[in-house]
Amino acid sequence: MQLVEGLKKRNLRALAKAISLAENDPLEAQEIFGEFISQAPLSFKVGLTGPPGSGKSTLIRNIVSKAVGENMKVGVLAVDPSSPFSGGALLADRLRISIPNLDFSRVFIRSLSSRGHLGGLSPGIITSVKLMDYYGFDLLLLETVGVGQAEVEVMYLADLVGVVLVPNLGDDIQAMKSGLMEVADLFVINKCTLPGAEKLKQELEFLINSSPRFQGALWRPPVIYTDALTGEGVDQLWEFVKNCQRDENFLKFLEKKRKRQVHFQIYQSLINYFRLKAEDVMKPLSLEKYSSGEVRELIKKIIAECQKGQRNAEKD
Amino acid sequence: MEKGKTRILIAKVGLDGHDRGAKYIAQALRDKGYEVIYTGIRQTPEDVVKAAIQEDVQFVGLSLLSGAHNQLFPRVVQLLKEKGAEDIVVFGGGVIPRDDISFLKSQGIKEIFTSGTAIDEVVEFIEKTLRNAAG
Predict the structure, then answer these.
(1) Whether A33 contacts A19, CB under 8 Å
(2) Between helices A234-244 and A56-69, what is the axis angle to 10°?
(3) Which of residues 83-112 of B touch A (CB under 8 A)?
(4) Are B38 and A102 within 8 A, CB to CB?
């Protein structure tokens, strides 16, 4: 296949097209690329997640320029949400990540739509990341959609998860909740010149120091202040990203972490499979003729028909 | 063209900060179900072409209101060709004098939409182009 040949020659367009295939048809992409990309050496992956507008893309821009300044090759996969109404998407991460005269021979940025997927990433993300591994980057950056409290999928793909927060989003109890706050290997307090930054740092440190999870743990997330727009704190962030790759404890922690990826890979492939099935089953239905009272019966019928392996549950 | 979502790069080239039109088109195409990547203002043709290839788009929509369209639009088409990406369809919009449209089309810009264009016209152009490419 032409795409596979192109990839083997490290053709940039082939990489871009292969990622499209992974996004359009994750299962087919696994079939085509799965075998030869699965053995690829892994790039170091930094995932940035956090609420919308917290500065993830702008931080990535800063990290990209630091990395390019040190002659590294950098890949970025940035996810933005799809529309629940039209299925379309406005992908605007590139706008903030890209800087004038960026050396595109060293930087590959790809914007992805979440395409209805709810974990903060996209349906084809696993294969897309693998394709990037295969192509070969010194550093891979993953940016999630702007997340709420529960979108934590990035923890299964990124070696280092940075949760980007800004001051004054909520009280200390918000920080104690499960989900997002638990997946951080690093906390970044961005827009750190705003009032409330110090209070947030204290709350995060209390959280880390008081949680039994971190007692005797291999890794405890540090808290770093940044202001991505002015570049304040970016040097420290960059040094941290580089240093942790040489930190003995972090590497042990990472080894454990990477094992979780297998579970996620199987899980997401199944989710993709059943999601496509669900779309197949829903498509021929004339849903507008059902009242909400009739829906329960319809669901029962659909499930019964699915078990028989029939596509159109309306057919008698 | 391949199956799957249609992806469109909306780009502003040259020294022109008037981005309402580009943002309007980006938002409207999103509402029509397309995946739209918006580059932001003041892009060079080189950067637009690199973005188009990395993002694997089928269309590039260029917006320009400063008058440099006769230089910058054909440059994008030419660079795409040099990169072997002439299958990416380029269309343009903005403040484009009627007299310039035939020149731009002769340079490989598939369609020009001036101010006042209804979004459905743009969608029709996109869909027609996709149908023709599919044969």
Answers:
(1) no
(2) 70
(3) 83-85
(4) no
**C-beta atoms surrounding A215 within 10 Å:** 9
Nearest CA of chain B to the CA of A24: how many Å? 5
Is the ipTM value over 0.95, yes or no?
no
| Superfamily (CATH) of domain A36-260 | P-loop containing nucleotide triphosphate hydrolases (3.40.50.300)
- Long-range contacts: A97-103, Cβ < 8 Å, 24+? A97/A57, A97/A60, A97/A61, A97/A64, A98/A61, A98/B39, A98/B40, A98/B47, A98/B51, A99/A61, A99/A64, A99/A65, A100/B42, A100/B44, A100/B47, A102/A64, A102/A65, A102/A68, A102/B47, A103/A68
Task: Tell if the CB–CB gap between A24 and B7 is shorter than 8 Å.
Answer: no
SS3 state at A244: helix
Residue A108's nearest CA partner among A154, A67, A70 is A67
pLDDT by residue, tens only, chain A of 316 residues:
789 999 999 999 999 999 999 999 888 898 999 888 888 999 999 999 999 999 999 999 999 999 999 999 999 999 999 998 999 999 999 998 887 778 888 999 999 999 888 888 988 899 999 999 999 999 999 999 988 877 888 988 999 999 999 998 877 777 777 788 889 999 999 999 999 999 999 999 998 999 888 888 899 999 999 999 999 999 999 999 999 999 999 999 999 888 877 788 788 888 888 887 788 888 888 878 888 888 888 888 888 877 776 555 565 4
pTM of the predicted protein model: 0.90
Across the beta sheet with A160-165, the strand order is A107-113, A74-80, A139-143, A44-49, A160-165, A186-189, A223-225
Structural domains of chain B, with CATH: 7-134 (3.40.50.280)
Q: Which of B39, B44, B85 faces A95 most closely, judged by CB atoms?
A: B39
Tell me how far apart the alpha carbons of residues A115 and A82 are, in angstroms, rounded to a whole number: 5
Query: Is B26 touching A (CB cutoff 8 A)?
Result: yes
- The secondary structure of A193-207 as a DSSP string is TSTTHHHHHHHHHHH
Per-residue b/e over A242-258, b at no fewer than 16 CB within 10 Å? eebeeeeebeebbeebe
What value does the CA radius of gyration of chain B take, rounded to a whole number of Å? 13
Cβ neighbours of residue A161 closer than 8 Å, sequence gap 6 or more = A47, A49, A154, A155, A183, A184, A185, A186
**Smallest Cα distance from A175 to chain B, Å:** 33
